[in-house]
């Protein structure tokens, strides 16, 4: 048999499959920094798109063994010995999400160890499709007790998938609706290259590893997008050519590890240092305060 692939398409496919690890590698082993930690340490993903993550899995692993969204979440986010999530805030922000939110919620809301919550609202990409009908669907979702906020709403001038004036009008309309609902829910803002129109105040406050309460940080994966770049292939049983194919809640400790590295920059040997567990604990408290999870 010739070793030359019969066509360019097969060549691309084989390259792609060689870069995609076996699906068993998707269940991430407990991060080294968490191995000796407090058993009560709780990981909370405050922003993820679980339905899209499952769709991404099905695209990348067409013959994958995880047949439905509940099995998928159970395997990747609830497995013993992995970086198991205690809570998550799922995001329903596209018009199509409003077609499945109730069934997704029904499938995911009764895990014994996962506090499943969600936010709902129109992403700025969707602004051009906003309508009274779509708003009615969002408001219907907001009646559910597991709905903890509006989001992700905002402005995105990088992609400009909707005209900017339409994005602004839809953002104003959703903010007015959120405030009028008087439910004191969180608002998750998406902003990209819109700094002139969305002012981000410096939320820094005095904090230290021994008194971390001023660390105003929340951790999120935005799954399936952007797995952390510091996930070491060797440690995860992947070849050097492979890439972790999508983010999910189990990657959070790598994000925390990166944050700790930044926080500890410039510290000397004798200085009080941040730890992965320390920032995750503070983020867990912050998630409770922001979203009630
Ligand atoms: Zn998102």
From TrEMBL:
UniProt organism field: Rhodotorula graminis (strain WP1)
Gene3D superfamilies hit by this protein: Metal-dependent hydrolases
One Pfam family per UniProt: TatD_DNase
Signal peptide location: none
Coiled-coil stretches: none
InterPro entries: Metal_Hydrolase (IPR032466), TatD-like (IPR001130)
Family matches, as SUPFAM superfamilies: Metallo-dependent hydrolases
Binding site for a divalent metal cation 1: 47, 49, 152
Positions with a binding annotation for a divalent metal cation 2: 190
Name of the protein: TatD DNase family Scn1
Domain of life the protein comes from: Eukaryota
Keyword Transcription annotated: no
Residues covered by region (Disordered): 1-25
Repeat is among the record's keywords: no
Single annotated GO MF: metal ion binding
Keywords from the UniProt entry: Metal-binding
């Amino acid at each position: 048999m010739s070793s030359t692939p019969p066509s360019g398409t097969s060549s691309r496919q084989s390259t792609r499959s060689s870069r995609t690890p076996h699906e068993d590698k998707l269940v991430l082993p407990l991060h080294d920094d968490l191995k000796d930690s407090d058993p009560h340490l709780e990981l909370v993903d405050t922003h993820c798109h679980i339905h899209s993550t499952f769709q991404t899995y099905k695209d990348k692993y067409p013959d994958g063994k995880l047949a439905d969204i509940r099995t998928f979440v159970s395997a990747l986010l609830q497995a013993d010995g992995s970086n198991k999530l205690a809570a998550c805030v799922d995001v329903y922000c596209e018009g199509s999400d409003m077609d499945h939110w109730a069934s997704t919620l029904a499938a995911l809301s009764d895990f014994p160890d996962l506090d499943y919550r969600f936010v709902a609202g129109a992403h700025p990409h969707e602004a051009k499709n906003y309508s009274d009908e779509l708003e009615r669907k969002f408001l219907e979702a907001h009646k559910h007790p597991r709905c903890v906020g509006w989001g992700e709403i905002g402005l995105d001038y990088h992609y400009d998938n909707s005209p900017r004036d339409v994005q602004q009008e839809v953002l104003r309309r959703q903010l007015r609706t959120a405030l009028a609902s008087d439910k004191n829910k969180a608002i998750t803002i998406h902003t990209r290259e819109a700094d002139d129109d969305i002012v981000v105040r410096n939320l820094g406050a005095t904090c230290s590893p021994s008194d971390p309460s001023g660390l105003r940080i929340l951790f999120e994966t935005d799954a399936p997008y952007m797995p952390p770049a510091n996930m070491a292939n060797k440690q995860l049983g992947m070849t050097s050519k492979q890439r972790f194919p999508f983010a999910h809640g189990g990657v959070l400790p790598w994000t925390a590890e990166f944050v700790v590295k930044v926080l500890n920059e410039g510290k000397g040997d004798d200085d009080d240092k941040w730890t992965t567990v320390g920032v995750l604990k503070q983020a867990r408290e912050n998630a409770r305060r922001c979203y009630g999870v």
